[in-house]
Amino acid sequence: MRYLILSDIHSNWEALEGVLSAAKGQYDEIVCCGDFIGYGADPNRVIDWARENVSVAVRGNHDKACVELADLEWFNPVARAATIWTHHELTPANKDYVRNLAKGPAAVNGFEVVHGSPLNEDEYIVSTSEAAEAFGYVNTRVVFFGHTHLQGGFELSGRKIWGLSTPSNPMLLDLNADSAYLLNPGSVGQPRDEYPEAGYILYDPEDQFLFYHRIAYDVVGAQEKIRKAGLPGLLADRLAIGR
Ligand code: ZN
Question: Is the dihedral of CA 168, 172, 176, 182 positive or negative?
């Protein structure tokens, strides 16, 4: 079984469409590490698609905030404005789908999916010390996470942990049978590593085949919709610079 692993789509339909057309024919099922919505202008289109096409997903902190209007005190004013806008925009059926998303970790096919960390969907795994703590709570050798919007992740081999970067595109990750992995596909809809290209992973657990990908998409189209919706302009600007 080949999986398309996505995270942090954030209501960016143009980015999602770009990923789906680039990965077409190369996967059997879609798995998502959460944050379908929040920030972008197409929450209903993204959730309509998710309801039909995503096999396994966990909720992200923005998914939860957009339906419950909870935890808003932790959000900056721009994120808060987008959350409230999304809450009013979502149809009742789409709100139900988001409300029923499972809290991670979710088990898939010998691997797990979480949003932030295995312990807490709101926790960021950025440093090797944060990864070291997270590795203490994983149940499978390969775990996918999101939340940071940074493509890459961490490898644990013996007692050593190091960060994985993705210098080439696509990039094959040679999975070592003796290592454990926390892997981030990067954000589809709002990359934050100074590259605007949408990120994803293609993974086959049987063949131990894993590729990171980045693809260019219609950033201008996504920006125009954000401005037209009356969302904060910063949310459009950042897409062009990947921050
Ligand atoms: Zn996110």
Answer: positive
Q: How far is the CA of 205 from the centre of ligand 1 (A)?
A: 25
Q: How far is the CA of 155 from the centre of ligand 1 (A)?
A: 22
Distance 172 CA to ligand 1 centre (A): 24
Distance 71 CA to ligand 1 centre (A): 14
- Whether 238 and 188 have beta carbons less than 8 Å apart is answered as no
CA distance 116 to 108: 17
| pLDDT value for 51 | 98
Report the first-to-last Cα separation within the chain, whole angstroms: 33
Average pLDDT, the chain: 96
Q: List, in order of start, the domains of the chain with CATH numbers.
A: 3-240 (3.60.21.10)
| pLDDT score of 74 | 85
More confident residue, 71 or 179: 179
Q: Is the pLDDT of residue 73 over 90?
A: no
Distance 8 CA to ligand 1 centre (A): 5
Q: Which helix (H) or strand (E) holds 233?
A: helix 233-241
- 14-32 pLDDT, tens digit each: 999 999 999 999 999 999 9
CA of 177 to the centre of ligand 1 (A): 30
Q: Do 86 and 38 meet the contact criterion of CB atoms below 8 Å apart?
A: yes
Q: What is the pLDDT of residues 138-170, one digit of tens each?
A: 999 999 999 999 999 999 999 999 999 998 999
Instruction: Give buried/exposed letters for 151-167 (b at 16+ CB in 10 A, else e).
Output: bbbbbbeeeebeebebe
Residue 134 dihedral angles phi and psi, to the nearest 5°: -65, -40
